[in-house]
Specification:
By secondary structure, this protein is an alpha+beta fold. It has 6 helices and 5 strands. A 5-stranded antiparallel sheet has the order 3-2-1-4-5.
Length: 218
């Protein structure tokens, strides 16, 4: 994204800072040059926003904008610094509805329009963190890898296996057909792996599970 002056039409009152999220999640990789608060597109009349400036592999500079990036830097596990190679992940979450009101010259509301806009969620980490999470996700997707081996190599999978344990108990109580239970567990495993891959946090396993609670048979 260039730093040229924005040509977008005025945004409805109450709209969020971020541009519409893509249909799929995306990961932008580059060398961190700078980040901080600024007017959108560095335009003096732009709305308050947050930017991340990256040096791409092809030598070009790219600036990514989104108010949620500030929180992503604060929550980052690896706390990237200028010069680090990082990933900026934008995860497309459920849309939020905004209402735009059209008023006449006297200020009376003449019409209302409801618009659904995506609610991007940002994750910013050093690139090795994304590589580690991708490896953990691949491990979790493979049911032939034992739980012990998986957790030894990827401690962060403890929470995922605890959720699988809970899901298995639910499946046994809810469905009699083994194929239905197997399909549910497969979908649950994939959901957990995708969550890890996107850089989002899983529920932490209880202390008892971390000490060696029940093991999933799935």
């Amino acid at each position: 994204m260039s730093n040229a002056r924005s040509t977008e039409p005025p945004r409805p009152s109450g709209a969020r800072d971020e541009a519409a999220a893509p249909a799929q999640d995306r990961l932008i990789v580059g060398k961190l040059l700078d980040h901080g608060r600024a007017r959108h597109e560095f335009h003096r009349n732009g709305h308050a926003s947050y930017y991340v400036k990256l040096l791409m592999e092809n030598g070009e500079q790219r600036t990514v904008w989104g108010a949620g990036l500030e929180s992503a830097f604060k929550k980052s596990r690896t706390q990237p610094q200028p010069g680090d190679h990082i990933g900026v992940r934008q995860n497309n979450l459920d849309p939020v509805s905004f209402v735009t009101r059209t008023r006449n010259g006297e200020g009376l509301v003449m019409a209302k329009t409801s618009t659904d806009t995506p609610r991007p969620h940002w994750v910013v980490e050093k690139l090795e963190e994304f590589d580690m999470r991708a490896a953990a996700a691949r491990t979790l997707r493979d049911p032939t890898i034992s739980r012990r081996e998986a957790v030894q190599n990827h401690r962060e999978l403890l929470g995922a296996y605890w959720i699988l344990d809970t899901g298995q108990k639910l499946a046994l109580e809810k469905w009699q057909k083994p194929e239905v239970r197997a399909a549910f567990m497969k979908a649950l495993r994939e959901t957990l792996a995708a969550t890890l891959e996107r850089g989002e946090e899983l529920v932490r396993a209880p202390a008892a599970a971390e000490r060696g609670g029940p093991r999933s048979r799935e």
